[in-house]
Amino acid sequence: MTSTRYASPSYNGKIKAKAFRYIQILLCTLLTIGCVFPLIWLVDFSLVKANELFGKNFLVWPKKPHWENYYLALTDGKVPQYLVNSVIVTFVSVGLIVLLSVMMSYGFTRMKWKMSKVFLNIVLLGFMIPIHATLLSNFITFSRLNIQDSPIALIIPYVAFNLPQATFIMTGFMDTIPNAIEESALMDGCGIIRLLFTIVFPVLKPAIMTVIITSFINVWNEFIMAATYLTSDRFRTLPFSIYNFAGMYSSNYSAQFAVMTLSALPSLVAYVILNKHITKGIAAGAVKG
């Protein structure tokens, strides 16, 4: 009976592939724990009393949840008022971003006209413009137009700063779609507006979902422009509840964590619901981008 001295190359390859697979799983598990743990820590500390935070345990599981922290957040933190303002500003901004990016990407990729590539590159140059460089100039402009301290003063820059990224994703995705369906619809007498809303929009669903979630997170969590352009309490958005509450309850960290939880919850829910569309939309948009 004979025995082989060395293992076959195919067997060694399977061992290496399995080891590499286990390493990938381990790294992904550690990365997931690192991403999820801050959320668990935030919710945990929002349900305890303020005097229970300073102890030897890193996590304090309350025997009885202290829901008074959320009551203070909803009343003194003005979360309902700021939440309505954030919903209005975010809904209008994201809607305009999606509509304009689809129309622009269709014009840049499907309509043959001179300087189309030049104008597309000009739009994409918006990636290079920092927000802080436009705060003073926009503030002066909005003041002269009498739209400062209003939702319009937020919607205009939100759309402008998110439009380059949305156009980049839309044009890249549209370049991967053949023209046959659109050409047949045009031959049947379909108008350009009807073509956009009945054919182009459904085809661009993965890219649109990606634009919606990325723009939603950017607009929902933005604070610098809101703090610069809004001076009264009437139109302030949800990030102001954290800012104001930290000053009112500077020593009550549990109540501050409750406000942070309420502020982060909408964007977290939106991300979980639309997450399956993000990878597909970004991957397709990066093919020709």
Give a verbal description of the structure.
With 289 residues, the chain is an all-alpha fold. It folds into two domains: 37 residues; 218 residues, MetI-like (MetI-like fold, Orthogonal Bundle). Helices cover 71% and strands 0% of the residues. The C terminus is likely disordered. The chain has twelve helices and no strands. Helix 3 packs parallel to helix 6, helix 6 runs parallel beside helix 12 and helix 7 packs antiparallel against helix 8. The longest helix has 37 residues. The relative contact order is 0.14.
At a glance:
With 289 residues, the chain is mainly α. It has twelve helices and no strands.
Q: What proportion of the residues form beta strands (DSSP E)? A: under 5%
CATH fold-level topology of the largest domain: MetI-like fold
- pLDDT average, as an integer? 80
Percent of residues in helical segments? over 70%
Shape: flat
Q: How many domains, as an integer? A: 2
Estimated radius of gyration: 25 Å
